[in-house]
UniProtKB/TrEMBL annotation:
This is STAS domain-containing protein. It is found in: Membrane. The keyword NADP does not apply. Keywords: Membrane, Transmembrane, Transmembrane helix. It is a multi-pass membrane protein. Residues 523-735 form the STAS domain. GO terms for molecular function: secondary active sulfate transmembrane transporter activity. InterPro entries: S04_transporter_CS (IPR018045), SLC26A/SulP_dom (IPR011547), SLC26A/SulP_fam (IPR001902), STAS_dom (IPR002645), STAS_dom_sf (IPR036513). Pfam families: STAS, Sulfate_transp. It comes from the Eukaryota. GO terms for cellular component: membrane.
Length: 772
């Protein structure tokens, strides 16, 4: 690019359209030959030793890093990290089991088996697999829906007592939770094997944060009965949270004061200790296990003061020592929990992969999203056989595992060993632990989710659409329960995407002097319009939902109401054809008169009608007076003169202000990543309709996939491929070359010169001043 005279510039390069680009690709041998599907399928089924090894290692990532594991470098950090995480597993496992409406010991099982499975199949080195608040609440909603307390009331003759058969109820709920977990695990494994790891991307951050905030509300309401020592009715279905909260408020006068006192003291101690932990975190080698200390102290106080017998404070109860043998899940529950299982699979994976990618980015390794689906699915499916419920990565435990120096999943194995020792030897020691203490632990651990309500202010300032997604997710999850809320929130989030693509920003681009850039003229004041050329840009792809809006925006931005113009032109063409028929008839009558010299009466009447410029077949006597004087054609006017005036009347000039200032429109399709049949039809209509009023249409910036879809849709069957250009600048150069300065009546300083007049050479050198 070189400077020209008086602020212009000269461009000496080849103008590239799609045909020229294909020609160069073939000449330089850089075009990619399409590989037949049969060959690709055959190649994918080939099995060699290296490919088999890669597939086995990708399926079992432990085979990659375990042979390289250095005990001296990683052993001690992983051990310290594993002990720290294992200590957190104990209180969280028992506390979150209450959220799932299961006996606390099953929370310990859930903290043990899945962590071992993930050790072999997981690709993240830092996440801690086990119980998590949101999934525990989701499992609890399923167990309480299918196994409510009302179904397990003890019958005594004809009287029904208020006592619930807790053993039968818990056993049934464990079966429901195990079946749901196995089904959710199978869904995750199947999605991972078919490469559906991207499914988590449909859960945006505002959606996840709004969903977890609403889940925290469910968790709080679920724990109120343990904190206040009352027994409200637990409802299910839409507005169940509201009904439960109303019933809870009605029972407040019946609050059990010793239980409330134990809860309040535990909450105060936990909050104070955690704040001190955060303040002195940099000075402490490992965080103080506050939750475990509170559990131990609470158990000792309850044991020695007999809180259960003396003050009727509810305690954990019997905790069996040892592990449960594996059992097959009851598949008859699958049909009743399939929706809940899918929700558990998607939410659990979204939380785990987001944490895994965060730590992988920080420490410089890669997490395979599909393999994470498989690993998490196997952890759930295998764990379900051992009476575990759904698991995912825990943010608090993962942060502890990473900050205490954990390097690999050997830390997860160490934490599982801590849980195993507790289940085998120490479990019965926690039988006197008050449930109020576990509820206090859950309540305090929800503090991070309560802080997410600050997102409302942040999103209000940054993105109103994301705020709407957050609020809609929160409201639908709170009022329509967790499973229905997730489906409604995902649907709403997708609708916002469709809405934003259906109504994108349309703009006219102008040229930035001294460059090949074309920018929005409304937002960039330094750009200049290219006279005679309208460059139309859409911020989104064109598809069936916005194709008609695209056409309407093009009409508005170009100032050409193509519908009215074509209607007007076709009317003029119809009038022209009618005048041609009239002129032909007059010519025949004139010839006949000259031969015979007479008219019949009918011919004479018809002759005078023609003098008025009307059709005798459609004109009545009363309508003759309505004709305008300008329509009278005398016999002295020759047929040639009449045709000349008629043709002039329907020429492009007769359209006046609509067409003189635009001769070319360039459609910038660079944002389009696909195109469907509706959009192809719309583009074809644009080419044809604007062509009728002598406005040339060109396309620029199409991606290879879009060009391929245009070819498959038959777009180039009646439209020349030379109208498709590599860039907007190439299209502008072509328009200026084709139309020249003569086509720009209001652009006196434009000049175009050619270095080679040969039509086969498309290398142009032109100087353009004023717009460039």
């Amino acid at each position: 690019m070189a400077k020209g005279r008086k602020g212009g510039y000269r461009v000496e390069r080849e103008i590239l359209n799609e045909e020229r680009l294909e020609e160069l690709s073939q000449r330089l041998d850089i075009s990619q030959t399409r590989i037949p599907l049969s060959y690709r399928l055959k190649n994918s089924l080939r099995c060699s030793v290296p490919s088999l090894k890669r597939r086995v290692v990708s399926f079992l990532p432990v085979l990659y890093w375990l042979p390289r594991y250095s005990i001296w470098d990683y052993g001690m950090p992983d051990l310290i990290s594993g002990i720290s995480v294992g200590i957190m597993h104990l209180p969280q496992g028992m506390a979150y089991a209450l959220l799932a409406s299961l006996p606390p010991v099953f929370g310990l099982y859930t903290s043990f088996y899945p962590a071992l499975i993930y050790f072999f199949f997981g690709s993240s080195r830092h996440i801690s697999i086990g119980t998590f608040t949101v999934l525990s609440i989701m499992v609890g909603s399923v167990t309480e829906r299918l196994a409510p307390d009302a179904d397990f009331l003890i019958m005594n003759g004809t009287n029904v007592t208020a006592e619930v058969d807790i053993t039968a109820r818990d056993q049934y709920r464990v079966q429901v939770a195990a079946a749901t977990t196995v089904l959710a695990g199978l869904i995750q494994v199947i999605l991972g094997l078919v490469q559906f790891g991207f499914v988590g991307t449909y859960l945006s951050e505002p959606l996840v944060r709004g969903y977890t905030s609403a889940a925290a509300a469910h968790a709080v309401v679920a724990q109120l009965k343990y904190i206040f020592g009352v027994s409200p009715i637990r409802f299910s279905g839409p507005f169940s949270l509201v009904y439960t909260l109303v019933d809870m408020c009605a029972l407040l006068p019946s609050t059990h004061l010793p239980t409330l006192l134990a809860s309040v003291v535990s909450i105060i101690v936990l909050i104070t200790a955690k704040e001190l932990n955060n303040r002195f975190s940099k000075k402490l080698p490992v965080p103080i296990p506050v939750e475990l200390i509170v559990i131990v102290v609470g158990t000792l106080i309850s044991f020695y003061t007999h809180l259960n017998e003396t003050f009727e404070i509810s305690v954990v109860g019997e905790i069996p020592s040892g592990l449960q043998p594996p059992t097959l899940p009851n598949t008859s529950y699958f049909s009743e929990v399939v929706v809940d299982a899918f929700a558990l699979a998607v939410v659990g994976y979204a939380i785990s992969i987001s944490l895994g990618k965060t730590f992988a980015l920080k420490h410089g390794y890669k997490v395979d999203s599909n393999q994470e689906l498989v690993a998490l699915g196997l952890s759930n499916a295998v764990g379900g056989f051992f009476q575990c419920y759904s698991v995912c990565a825990s943010m608090s435990r993962s942060l502890i595992q990473e900050t205490t120096g954990g390097r690999t999943q050997m830390a997860g194995v160490s934490s599982a060993v801590i849980v195993l020792v507790t289940v085998l030897k120490l479990g019965p020691l926690f039988q006197e632990l008050p449930k109020a203490v576990l509820s206090a632990i859950v309540f305090v651990n929800l503090k991070g989710m309560f802080k997410q309500y600050a997102d409302i202010v942040t999103l209000w300032r940054s993105s109103k659409i994301d705020l709407l997604v957050w609020l809609m997710t929160w409201a639908s999850t709170v009022f329509f329960n967790l499973d229905m809320g997730l489906g409604a929130s995902i649907s709403f989030a997708l609708l916002t995407v469709i809405f934003r693509t259906q109504r994108p920003r349309y703009s006219v681009l102008g040229h930035l002097p001294g460059t090949e850039l074309y920018l929005d003229m409304e937002t960039h004041k330094e750009v200049r319009e290219v006279p005679g050329i309208t460059i139309f840009h859409s911020s989104a792809t064109i598809y069936f939902a916005n194709a008609e809006l695209y056409l309407e925006a093009l009409k508005q931005k170009s100032g050409l109401d193509i519908t009215k113009m074509i209607t007007y032109k076709r009317r003029q063409e119809a009038k022209q054809r009618k005048r041609e028929r009239r002129a032909a008839r007059r010519a025949r009558r004139e010839a006949k008169r000259q031969v015979w010299g007479v008219f019949s009466v009918e011919e004479e009447a018809e002759h005078w009608v023609y003098l008025k410029g009307t059709d005798p077949e459609t004109t009545t006597l009363g309508s003759l007076s309505d004709l305008q004087d300008g329509d009278i054609t005398t016999l002295e006017s020759s047929s040639e003169d009449t045709l000349s005036r008629d043709l002039e009347r329907v020429s492009l000039g007769s359209l006046g202000k609509w067409t003189w200032d635009i001769h070319s429109i360039i459609l910038d399709l660079s944002p389009a990543n696909f195109i469907d049949t509706v959009a192809i039809k719309t583009l074809r209509n644009i080419f044809h309709d604007f062509g009728e009023i002598d406005v040339d249409i060109y396309m620029a910036g199409c991606q290879a996939l879009v060009v391929e879809q245009l070819e498959q849709g038959g777009f180039f069957s009646d439209i020349d491929k030379e109208r498709l250009f590599t860039s907007v600048h190439d299209a502008v150069l072509y328009c200026l070359n084709r139309r020249g300065a003569g086509a720009l009546p209001n652009y006196e300083t434009a000049a175009v010169s050619f270095t080679d007049s040969d039509t086969t050479d498309t290398t142009y050198s032109h100087t353009v001043r004023g717009c460039m």
